[in-house]
Amino acid sequence: MAPSNMAHFPTNDSQLAHAQTSPQVPSETSSDVGPKESPPATFNNEKDQASLGDGLGDGTDDRIEITEDDCYDELGFCFTESKKWLVLTVIFLVQVSMNFNTSLYSNAAKGISQEFGVSAQGARCGAMIFLVLYAFGCELWAPWSEEFGRKPILQLSLLLVNIWQLPVALAPNFASIMVGRALGGLSSAGGSVTLGMIADMWEADHQQYAVAFVVFSSVGGSILGPVVGGFSEKFLDWRWSIWIQLIFGVAVQAAHLIFVPETRTTILMNRIAKKRREAGTHPNLYGPDEITPFRERFSAKEILVTWMRPFKMFLTEPIVLTLSLLSGFSDALIFMFIQSFSLVYTQWGFGTVAQGLSFLPILVGYFLAWFMFVPAIKRNIKERHDKPDDEKAQYESRLWFLLYTAPCLPIGLIGFAWTCSGPPLHWIGSSVFAAIVGIANYSIYMATIDYMITAYGPYSASATGGNGWSRDFLAGVLTIPATPFFTNIGGKQHLQIASTILFAISFVLVIAVYVIYWKGPILRARSPFAQQLKDAKDDNGGRRVSFLPTGYGSQPGSRRGSRRGSRMGSRKASYAGGAGSRGNSTGVGHNKQVQKKLAQLQQEQSKAE
Q1: Whole-Å CA distances, 115 to 11, 110, 229, 569
Q2: Are strands 285-286 and 64-65 parallel, antiparallel or unpaired?
Q3: Most buried by CB count within 10 Å: which residue of 36, 171, 206, 250?
Q4: pLDDT in the model for residue 478
Q5: Bias category Basic residues: which stretches (predicted)?
Q6: Residue 602, pLDDT score
Q7: CA diameter of the chain
Q8: Could you tell me which of 343, 351, 319, 317 has the C-alpha nearest to residue 555?
C-alpha cells in the first residue's frame, strides 16, 4: 500500500459526500506554497482511506503513480544547459532538413519536365503534393509523439522520408515521382514535434530563446533549398537535387539517433518508475502510462481520438485557429511572393546560380529578426517577472514585439512591387524590400509559436501542428497558380500589380495582429482546453503539467476517463510525501478543488433542506 505520509483526496462525488460528514484535522502546508489552505478531507477508518489511497478508486490496486515532483531532477527540465543546446542544435539540423526537402525539388522541375515530357506546371505538382501532404503529416505525427515519445516518432518519420526519396531519385516515369513525393510529405513529422521538445526541456518563462532558435531553422531551411538548388541545377543532373536531400536526411537522422535522448516527460517518468521498481526501492511505483493497460490506451477509439486531437484543437480552440490562420496566410503570401523571383531577376540577366542567390536577402531578414528578438525577449522576461499575476503580461506580452515587426510585411511587399520592374532601376532595391519581408515572416512565426507553446505546454505539438498545417497547406495549394498569377495579371505591369495585390491582403493580416493582441484574453477564455491547462498549471505552483488530469475536464486526446486521469498527474500527491518532494508536496492545489466541491455540496444540501 502507499506510504502513510501520502496525501489522499476523494475522487468522485460519492466519496466527496462521504468525506463531507467525516471529521477534519488541520493539515501542514509547506512554507513555500503560500497561505494555508482549508484542511483536506479525512476519513473515519482505514478502509475508506485504502479505497482512495492510490487514487485509482478500486480498493484493490496498491500501485502508486509517480509524479513529476518525485523525479523532477531527472526530467528534461533539469538537463544541463550544454545538453539542452546540444539536443536543440541537432533538432535545428533536423528541421532544416525537413524544410530543405520542400524547396530544393523546385530546382529539379526543369529537368523532370524535359526528361518525362510534362509541362513546367505539371512538374511543379511534385512540389505541390509534397507540401499539401506535409501539412497533414504534421497533424498526424504530432499527437503520437505525445503518446510514444519524441525520439521514436521522429526517427520513424526521418527513416520513412529518406526511404521515399529513393523512388523519386530512381524514377523511371513521372508517376513514380508523384508517388514518392506524396509519401515523403505524409511521412514528415514537421516542426510540431521538434517544437514540442522545447516544452519538454524549458518551462514557459525560459523557453523563448529556444523557440527563436528552432523557428529560425524552420524558415531558414526553406530558403537554403533554392540557394543550394541554383548550383545543383546548373552543374548537376536533376536527380542530384533528390540525392542531396537524401544525403542530408541520412546525416541528420544519424545525428538525431546518436545525440538526442528522449525528452517527453511522461515517457521519462515511465522509465524512472520502472528503474526504481527493478532496484527494489519502490516496488509499487509505476509511470503514468503503465497504470492504464496498453489495450485500453490504444483501442480503436483511442487511436482515432489521438489522431484527431490536432484537428479538433484547430477547429475548437480559438487561439489555435486564429493564430494558425494568421501564420498560414502570412506564409502563403510570402510563398507566392518568392515564386516571382525567377521572373523578376531574369530582367537583370540573372542566371540560374544568381537567381538562387537572390534568396539570400530573405535569409538576411531572418537573421536580423532573430537578433532583434533578443532584447525583446529580455524585456518580456522582465515584464513577466514584475507582473506575475497579470495574465496579459504572461501571455499577450509575447506578441508585443510583433506589433512593431508585422507592418514589415505590407511595407516589404509594396516596396518590392514597385522596385521589381527591372532596368533602369537597380536590383538592390528589390532585395532590400525582400529582406524586410523576411523580418515579418520570422516575427509572425516566432510570436505565434511562442504564444501557443506557452498556452498548451505538454500538448504544444498538437497545437502547433495546426499552425504548421495552415502554413504548408496554403503554400502547397498556391504552388500551381503562383506563376500564372504573376504573368497574367496587370498587362505590362503584371509583376507590380500582382505584388500590390499581395500587399493589400497583407494589410488586412496586419490589422488582425493588433486585434489578436488586444483581444487575446477573450480568445483564451473561449479556448476550453487552454483554460484547463492554465488552471492545472496554477494549481501546480506555476509549473507546467505533463498531461491534463481528468478532473480539469475532458482533454482533446486519449485516456479520457482512464485510471491514469483519476489523480493529479503532475507534481502532486507524490509518493514521497513531505519535504523530500518538490513544490506542492502536500497536494494543496488538488485540496483546493476538493474544498470547493465540498462547499458546493453543502450549499446544495442547505437548499434541499
Answers
A1: 68, 9, 18, 58
A2: parallel
A3: 171
A4: 87
A5: 560-570
A6: 58
A7: 92
A8: 317
Burial 444-470 (b: 16+ CB within 10 A, else e): bbbbbbbbbbbbbbbbbbbbbbbbbbb
Spatial contact of 524 and 531, defined as CB atoms under 8 Å apart:
yes
Could you say which residues of the chain have pLDDT below 50?
1-60, 550-598
Quick check: pTM over 0.85? no
| Confidence at residue 472, expressed as pLDDT on a 0 to 100 scale | 86
Rounded to an integer, what distance in angstroms lies between the CA atom of residue 573 and that of residue 588? Answer: 9
Residue 139 CA: distances (Å) to CA of 86, 189, 529:
26, 8, 18
To which residue does cell 491514469 refer? 564
Give whole-number Cα distances, 46 to 42, 43, 62, 221, in Å.
Answer: 10, 8, 14, 61
Q: Which of 127, 265, 144, 139 is nearest to 190 (CA)?
A: 139
Length of the chain: 609
Report d(CA 496, CA 22) in Å as an integer: 78
- Chain centroid to Cα 248, Å, comes to 24
CB-hemisphere CA count at 13 Å for 497? 11
Compute the distance between CA of residue 411 and CA of residue 509 in angstroms, rounded to an integer: 13
The Cα 298–Cα 575 span in angstroms is: 27
